[in-house]
Amino acid sequence: SQQGEEDPQALSIQEGENATMNCSYKTSINNLQWYRQNSGRGLVHLILIRSNEREKHSGRLRVTLDTSKKSSSLLITASRAADTASYFCATEEGDDKIIFGKGTRLHILP
Amino acid sequence: DAGVIQSPRHEVTEMGQEVTLRCKPISGHNSLFWYRQTMMRGLELLIYFNNNVPIDDSGMPEDRFSAKMPNASFSTLKIQPSEPRDSAVYFCASSLYGGQPQHFGDGTRLSIL
What we know:
heterodimer; A: mainly beta; 6-stranded mixed beta sheet; 56% strand; B: mainly beta; 4-stranded antiparallel beta sheet; 11 strands
């Protein structure tokens, strides 16, 4: 079963611009995680935000979590060509497994 | 640290054949996960282990699929007999504990003809 749904499904922006991706989920969570997947590779963990946190930063990444709206957003500032990838949110509901959404395909244009 | 190691990277075989995918998790990680990724269905959790014990195999599509973890450093996913609809990329991931950030291998791209 799918928990998180990313929006948009695909996004193209110019290099240097900011990219925002959103994730909505259905049930209560312990934490929400964001992952990146480059073409032909496995997923790479980016950031984890706990249910009692509202915002978290890591380098050029900023993640917010609104548990009342059951939504999260991932902001990538000053995008670079190397940021071209698919981005997935994943939710952990307390049963030790995490459920991934279908992802947002981000394309950074030169 | 070597990361999660999967083999083979690519497998092409004819339907009806047995397929075995292998995974070596990161040393010290207690949880191991097998996923299948397709364009249509996205990333699906097939099964996960804690301390080598299968905890949830509800994602295993049918009896043709089986997974084992004989020790903390090795796991296999077996499909017997294989069918064309099993074609997908299969990922193994490990984490220190369940629910924590997962480290993925680079996957096995499986094609069943």
